[in-house]
Each structure stands twice: as C-alpha cells, then as structure tokens.
Amino acid sequence: MRVLVTGGCGYVGAHTVRELSAAGHEVAICDNLSTGHRPFGEGYRLIEADIANQDVLAKALDGVDAVLHFAASAYVGESVVNPRKYIHNNVESALKLLDAVLASPARLFVFSSTCAVYGVPRTLPIAETAPRDPVNPYGATKLFFEHALAAYSVAHGLRSVSLRYFNAAGAHPDGSMGELHTPETHLIPLALQAALGVAPPLTIFGNNLNTPDGTCIRDYIHVSDLGRAHVLALEYLAQGGRTTCLNLGTGEGTSVAQIVLAAERISGRKVPYSYADPRPGDPPALYADSALAQSVLGWRPQFDISAILSTAWNWELRLQAMNHRL
Ligand code: UDP
Q1: Mean pLDDT value of segment 315-322
Q2: CATH number of the domain residue 59 falls in
C-alpha cells in the first residue's frame, strides 16, 4: 500500500515507518520537524509541512491508500499549563488533516492514541470498555479525535483504528534510533542518563503509594512492538476491518523501583535517585488488557522489559557519543 505517515520523524512514527517499509509498504512522511528529527526520515520521501497545510496535504495524499497519524503534542504536564497548544495541534490541526483526507480517495486511517484517554482507572488491567475519563488536556484532545474518527466512519466511510499506547519505551534494536525528547521527561531515558552521569540524579515521583513497593506501576511497551501493531492495524483495515480502538501494552506492570534496578543491571552502573511527591494526576498503577489487540490484529509484543532497557541503553550510549546531536 501507499501510505502517508504524519509525524514520521518522531519517536513512535519513525519506528513505525521502519516496520511499514519492512512489510513492503511505500511510505511518505509529513512532518513539520517541530519535535521530529530529520535523520529519522532519511531514505524516505519527506514532506516538510504542518498537517494543517491543506494545499500541501492535498498533493501529499495523491495516490495514497492510507494515513497513519502521529503528528501531535504529547507532554501531559505541558498540556496542563498550555492547553491551547494541545487544542490547536491535536484537535484543530488534526481536523484539518481529516478534511484533506476526506477530500482524497484515502479511506483508511490509523491513529496514535493513548491510555491517557482512561484517566484514573477504577479497575486493572484496563480494557477498552473502561470509562474514558481523561484527567488532563492531552488525554482529552486524543479522546476528542477518537470521537471525530468514530463519527467520520459512520458519516463518510473513513475506517480507522485508534491505538491506545501505554508507555512507549526502548529503541530500535539496530541502534539507529530511539527516544530523544527536548526536554526529556520520561523515566527510562532519565534513569539511564542519571546512570551515565549526564543528567541529574533521578527523581522518583512517589514512594508511598498503594502499590507493592510504593512506587508507580506502568506498562512499558517496546516502540518496535508498537510499530508492528500499526502495520497489522493497516492490514486489518485493508481487509475490510471495522473502525475500532485497541489498547497496546504488554499487560505487565513494572514499578519505577523495578525500572531503576533493571537500569542498574543493564548499564552496570548505579542510578542515583531521590524521592519526591507524586506528580499531580499520576495514577499509582496503569496496565493494559490488550487481549483485544491480540485477537483482532494477531499482535503479540516481542520485547520484554530487559530488552526495552538494553535497546534504550545502547541508544543512550550512541547519543552520548554523538553529543546528543543527530
Ligand atoms: N517517573 C519518575 N521520575 C521521572 C519521570 C517519571 O518517577 O523523572 C515516573 C512517573 O511518575 C510514572 C513513570 O515514571 O509513574 C513513567 O513516567 P513517564 O513520564 O515516563 O511516562 P507517563 O506514565 O507519564 O506517560
């Protein structure tokens, strides 16, 4: 298939581009490079534009069968202090993208959604049927877009899969790419950078929570496993699959303290840390029931937490060697 990937120079987008081309799909990337990295798009047709640019999108969509949409703002904390940015990028611009898609023949759409649509879960593991009650603007904007896709499916025949990721983590096994956010706020890169001494000691948010070791539990899913799920979602839609939303996680909860121990084991170094209060709105535990994705897509995660940490560690070493410049 010919596919357009918005945000294909970002972390999950770029890993998905690799999986798409490995599966034989012809990929073009649309990325405004506001947070994406040009080298991640090397070897692919890169349209350097914003998703709200209707003229560019109309041309980019010529001959395209499907769109995979990653371009978005994705910091929970930032969304609380600057909700307008999130409404603008994740809703207004994303709806313009959908206008361009509707004006084109493409009728298949895969959306990068998030477990933040659930807010604080009442039961664990979280299934797709759990109440969607986001507790921050980031989750709210992603949920709004899921609703738009559901409505456009009924009204316009635009079939879609919204993939609700849990904690994307790890790096490409070949060492060519991985997580590089500015600023970095995510646990695994910060723990590994603290081990290397290139970031301050890790702050563990919360050590007295209602979890077995008192620290937060999350479901870390390898970014290449996410990429493969997108390819499978695309193929599901191409075979006539109906519009749906699917969780992508391993179903395994890992605590912050367990991540610190794993980071020490993989790196062979100590991770210096201190404790602080939990982040406001951070649920103590989140992990997925991803049985639906497994049955609908035939998807199984292939990387465990050790593989996540060791690919992330290789990537951090490479970033250090490159002085954090790609
Ligand atoms: N976390 C932490 N210290 C940090 C960053 C994160 O203790 O410097 C915790 C955070 O409270 C959460 C988990 O690590 O429980 C994963 O956080 P991250 O920001 O990586 O992803 P999120 O779950 O917020 O999407």
Answers
A1: 93
A2: 3.40.50.720
Question: Looking up tokens 């990721």, which residue turns up?
Answer: 165
pLDDT at residue 282, rounded to an integer: 83
In the prediction, which pLDDT does 147 show? 98
Phi-psi bin for 277: left (phi > 0), alpha (psi -120 to 50), beta?
A: beta
**Residues 85 and 143 placed together within one structural domain of the fold:** yes
Could you identify the atom of ligand 1 that is nearest to the CA of residue 256?
A: 14
Cite the beta strand spans of 132-283 per DSSP E: 159-165, 167-169, 202-205, 217-218, 220-222, 244-248, 254-255, 273-276
Is 202 in the same domain as 131? no
Q: Active site includes 138? A: yes
Angle of helix 187-196 versus helix 256-267 axis, rounded to 10: 40
- pLDDT tens for 279-309 read 887 889 999 999 999 999 999 999 999 999 9
Residue 35 CA to residue 98 CA, distance in Å, equals 21
Q: Which atom of ligand 1 is nearest to the CA of 286?
A: 23
Ligand 1, atom 10, lies closest to the CA of 205
Is the pLDDT at 265 greater than 90? The verdict is yes
Task: Please state, in angstroms and rounded to a whole number, the distance separating the CA atoms of residues 199 and 222.
Answer: 23
* 267: nearest Cα among 256, 277, 259, 257: 259
pLDDT of residue 326: 76
Asked if 74 and 45 sit in the same domain, the reply is yes
Higher pLDDT, 172 or 280: 172
CA 203 to centroid of ligand 1, rounded, Å: 9
Question: Per the domain annotation, does 178 fall within a domain?
Answer: no
